[in-house]
Amino acid sequence: MKKLLLVMIFFLFSFAVYSFDADMAKKEGQVNLYANITAIEPLMEKFTADTGIKGIYTRISTSKYLATVLTEYSAGKLQADVVQGPMPILQILKDKGVLKKYDKSYLKDYPDWAKSDDYIAAFGIEYVAIIYNKELVKGDDIPKKYEDLTDPKWKNKIVMPDPASHATTISWLVGLKENNIFGSNEAWMDFLKKLAANKPMFVKSFSPTPAPIESGEKLLGISMPKYIITKAPAPLDWAKTDTLLGSPRGIALVEKSSRPNAAELFFKYWLSASNMQMLADKVGEYVLAKGVFPPINGIEKAKVLPIRELSDEEIKKWGAEFKKIFYN
Amino acid sequence: MIKIRGLRKYYHADGKVIKALDDINIEIPSNKIFTLLGPSGCGKTTLLRSIVGLETPDSGEIEIDGEVVFSSEKNIYVPTEKRGLGMVFQTYAIWPHMTIFQNISYPLENLKLKKDEINRRVKDVLRLVQLEGFENRPATKISGGQQQRVALARALVAKPKVILFDEPLSNLDAKLREETRRELKTFLTELGITAIYVTHDRVEALALSDVIAVMKSGRVIETGAPKEIYFRPRSSFVADFIGKVNIFKGKFSQKDGEFTVLNTLFGDIKGVASGEYSNDKDAMFFIRPEFIKLKNEPLKDLNCIKGRLKNLIFIGEYYEAEVDVNGNIFSVTISPDEELRENDEVFVCFEPKYTVIIDD
Amino acid sequence: MFRRNLTLTLIIIVGFLTICPVFMLLWGSFLKDLGTFSGFTFEKYILAYTDPEFLGIVKNTVLFVVGSAFFATVLAIFLSYMNTRTNIPFKFLFKVISIIPMMIPHILFAVSWVLLLNPSNGILNTLLMNMFNLSDTPINIYSLSGMIFVEGLLDLPIAYLIIAPAMSAFDISLEESSKVCGASDIKTFFRITLPVLRPAIMASFILVVVRSLASFAVPSVIGMPGRIYVLSTHIYRVIASGFSADYGMAAAIGMSALVASVILIYIYRYLTSETSRFVTISSRGFKPSVVNLKSSKYPLFFIVAFISFLLIIVPVIVLIYTSLTPYIMAPSMRAVPMMSLKNWIEVLKDPISLLSLKNSLFLGVFGATIGVILSVFVSYVIVKVKTKSAGLLESLSFLSFSFPGIVIGVGFMWFFVKTPLYGTIWALLIGYIATYLPYGIRPLSSAFIQIHDSLEESSKVCGASYFTTLKKIIIPLLIPGIVSSWILMSTMFFRELTLSVVLSRPGSEVLAVQILRFSEDGLWGRLSALGIIMIFCSSLIVVIVSLIGKKLSKAHV
């Protein structure tokens, strides 16, 4: 109740200052969000209940994201008012002129890097960690650092997305190098080679990674801590490494939206602390709003860093490189 | 009356041209049974299917009772269902998912007749083909002979201008075939309907038809009444196809009143010529076995040739035998009461009026 | 005249439906920049086909598709022979066995088998290990043979629904004459029955080849962990590595699948061109006789029961089990106290799941009906008209079907976005029919081949127009084929994923998309619950339609 009141006050305050018209937004009636982030239905319902504007969630997977948005855009049929997706995709949309500038004051409590782009606001990090089955991996066996994955005892016990083709995984592996997690490039390469020697099972992306861990088919894997929340009560936990890496998640307004006021209202609502808290609580996302953490044991102590966005050429190059290492 | 003019249909297969119909010109008289007879592959079925409209010829014209139903020149093609014909298929084509009644009433439904009219006419035609009481039988639960009658009833029920038969008896056993043939003849004659009948069976053709057209390689070789075709064929192909025959070569030598004399290796043979006569022209004569009589000595006014009796076989109604004349074989039949033995010396004698001379 | 018009009309309709998306893809594969649709290049083809790995992928693909097709077809021949021609008990089992895999979402089916046969803790593997005291798990599902096994099972319904109607309409005199000639039942089967059924067997084989060429679920769930890549996963890899997915390149690779399929279809047409040789229904011999299995009756039944146990009961039990557990756990007594109906309640309360159920029901029933009507005309032309343009029509009908699913969806999107149908359920309907037309056409063509021309000709002589003939003679004789087609199309539409995932939008969600979402969110329990609801609805529809079909054909015989 107190929270709601706060939100209301926040709203009243903001309406006076910012450039959109709440009445107009109501009249526009709805807002369409294209997103690759999953399981945000409760957030959309909450938005609809709070504002009286219908929030529509159009879910588009990463691999079809650009094709869909650009096809619709070039045919003049882009139905999105707000787009959410990985930063590199939003960058391309920005370059094509699909996006609109946003008001940086919405991101008051965010780190500076999150609002460094005039068009795209970063609000979270798709953080990656070592996830293990807490019923089958116990005590001293629980990895504490990334190198622990290379212990030969994990041979045939690891699952991870395909390092030769899965873009986010490739970026993450490169991120480990660029953030100097292992101290040197040689140590990083050594990590990769030993990991490859443990013959991890490759799946097509992150979403199929938790299933073999929870069923006990594999014991641990390179996966995402958010599954600890979304898959509860599955016996999953994360290895408490001090640094976690991930690609930033961004959100942006669409330039030619036919519902500009509703879009702006939604955009602002999305970035609000209460919405971010819900995102963290319900979906287990790591968000950038200050002081908001997902309810995962120990996550607030971890350093979670955004990785550099690789270009498609780099991803292809590194993918080929990793293929040599992992497929032999 | 059906008039067919210049009908052609060629098929192309493996780079060869097959002439299924090669310039067919015939007239099929009304209210008669007209038979297309010929060996398989002669084009008789193609001609039938062209008349009914299931095949489209390459060129020519078909006219049924004054109405042109096909003309390549005038670009006319009346579709099958508008030609108002009836047809009995070789397989009968009884629809297995319908009852007898449904099968037979089908053409009437297509004429949009009233229900009681349909009922009445189906009943009538069922009585005609002696299948009363079979109305509600499923089409798959009847014998071959009954199926044939259902097919006939279905072809007749709409009172078509012409009824066509595509070897309708070939699926029946020999005894049933003979019976059905007789029934069909009586039946069609009583109805006085124009019928076109396709068969490769000469006995069937002779027994049923008012007119026979013999076909070979896409052409009509000869048309005529059964007796004409049988007794006075105008080609060796027809003579041979229509029944057992003895054929020998010779040369025209002279006219002798109504007869023509042919010079052969057996000496002069007198006969009836059906071709143009001219001196020394190559010709041949033929005589059917049943007109040959075996005598102990030559008879006057008959063609008689001396030979030796061979291969005497008793087959019930008569003996079949051969007479060897210096290595030339005559097939003959001998009445069972004749007392002859193999290797007897006999004279093969036959009357000039049954001896046909042709010049092909 | 009519035939020519009909052929032409159908070529236009089918051509429009299938060429448009394929043309968009062809165009896209030559473009530098897909965003603006500009710039011409061969680069994508050069890149795609000079990839040194491509040869290995082609080899895997060929083994995979031919293996699956062989497995599915042989199994279908066995089951349909047992069902239609012998006195084996409990015949209804066969129909169920052959259709159930059609209704299980392929992802679920593949995951079930992973749970059963994975080399770490697969349930069956553990069982076998304990039974025979093995030191290691005996079976590894993550292999080419594992892929062939699961894909073959998934494609079994296609093969069965094509072969069984042909088998049941077999002219018994052909077999009887073989027996008269002194051949045993088994010899008759191999020397007479199989050769005469060649068109249906070939059709099933080719359809399964084409289908498994486009299949993605099994190659991704089973192949990728086993590091075995086939064409569809190779394409996925091309799309997935990089954020601006290169669908042009994917289309360029997909073209080889398209060419392969078109060639296969021509080979098939060539091999079965003398259709009259294979005519088997005539007026007589409509009812095939029954082979008495005598002493082998129960052993054979045991085999069939075992197959059905593997095929339906095991995966369905796995589904029911996962729908009750809060997360994926290996079955043990420990799981029992954790079981609840929570997943079911969540699904039944979820408005999007309910909407997707409604939409899928509409598409499954209405879409399949339209699809079958179109298929009747198309297969009529393909089988009975036999001109060059009929061959063209047949190839056209396979065009979008033979394209790997992930790519064709994008082709349809590029096409539909230019029409007002974009984002509506009608786009899905049209896309489904265009893509899965072969499901309708194959069983119907096999059925058409067996209707002797004279049955149709005699109707014309009786004064019936083409439409009357179609309505009164051909359709009633076709009922078994129509039922097969309808079931194939309907169950396919009911669980369609590849097109839907690209074309469905809020409001036009369908079941498979919802299931995919659950799987992406890792909500296996809800996924299984929705999957069971889906299988149940699908089975219900199939049962109703089979009963109607049975009643209709009984009324006539």
Biggest interface, chains and residues, is:
A-C, 63 and 55 residues
Question: Would you tell me which CATH topology of the largest domain in chain C applies?
Answer: MetI-like fold
Helix coverage percent of residues of chain A? 25-40%
**What letter string, H or E per element, gives the SSE order of chain A?**
HHEHEHEHEEEHHEHEHEEHHEEH
Structural class of chain A: alpha/beta
Give the terminus-to-terminus CA distance of chain A. 58 Å
The helix/strand class of chain C is mainly alpha
- The name of the CATH topology of the largest domain in chain A is D-Maltodextrin-Binding Protein, domain 2
Q: How many beta-strand elements of chain C?
A: 2
Per CATH, the superfamily of the largest domain in chain C is: MetI-like
Which architecture of the largest domain in chain C per CATH? Answer: Orthogonal Bundle
> Main sheet of chain A, how many strands, which sense, barrel?
12 strands, mixed
Question: Could you name the ranges of chain A where pLDDT drops below 50 across 5 or more consecutive residues?
Answer: none
The first-level CATH class name of the largest domain in chain C: Mainly Alpha
Provide mean pLDDT of chain A, rounded: 88
How does this model look, in words?
- The complex is a heterotrimer of chains A (328), B (360) and C (557).
- With 328 residues, chain A is of the alpha/beta class.
- Chain A is 40% helix and 20% strand.
- In chain A, strand 1, helix 3 and strand 2 form a beta-alpha-beta unit.
- The longest helix of chain A is centred in the first third of the chain and has 16 residues, at 2-17.
- The radius of gyration of chain A is 21 Å and the shape is globular.
- Chain A starts with a helix and ends with a helix.
- In chain C, 55% of the residues are buried.
- Helix content of chain C is 74%, strand content 1%.
- Chain C is mainly α.
- Chains A and C meet through strand 2, helix 4, helix 5, strand 7 and helix 8 of A and helix 5, helix 12, helix 18 and helix 23 of C.
